[in-house]
Specification:
The chain is mainly alpha-helical. Helix content is 72%, strand content 0%. It has four helices and no strands. α1 (5-20) packs antiparallel against α3, α1 runs parallel beside α4 (84-101) and α2 runs parallel beside α3. It is globular and about 40 Å long.
């Protein structure tokens, strides 16, 4: 069993920052970065769970749902991670997206 605690902590921090961000920051880039991250994590989980299946894209539920979307996506991908290296890669993705989001 892989310890995904660092990943969950990283995404919880990002989600908390998104929830505290002003609407202007969400509109500028933060919500778009979060949605892009959520979609990338969801695709990762899909590739592992259903490698031959058709790709499905997480819908854009609006800027105020971005924090919830990354939280859901990271919990999905955490279930399919197989190594500490994969956890570290996912943490890196979250941290980079948070930097780009500016929150």
């Amino acid at each position: 069993m892989v310890d995904t605690t660092p990943l969950v902590r990283a995404v919880d921090h990002f989600a908390d920052r998104l929830r505290a961000a002003p609407q202007s920051r969400l509109q500028r880039s933060a919500a778009a970065e979060a949605l892009a991250l959520a979609r990338e994590l969801a695709r990762w989980a899909q590739r592992v769970e259903d490698p031959g299946g058709p790709p499905r894209e997480m819908p854009d539920a609006g800027m105020f749902a971005a924090a919830d979307q990354i939280t859901v996506a990271v919990h999905d991908v955490a279930l399919v991670l197989r190594s500490d290296g994969e956890v570290a890669e996912a943490v890196r993705m979250v941290e980079e997206a948070q930097k780009r989001a500016g929150v």
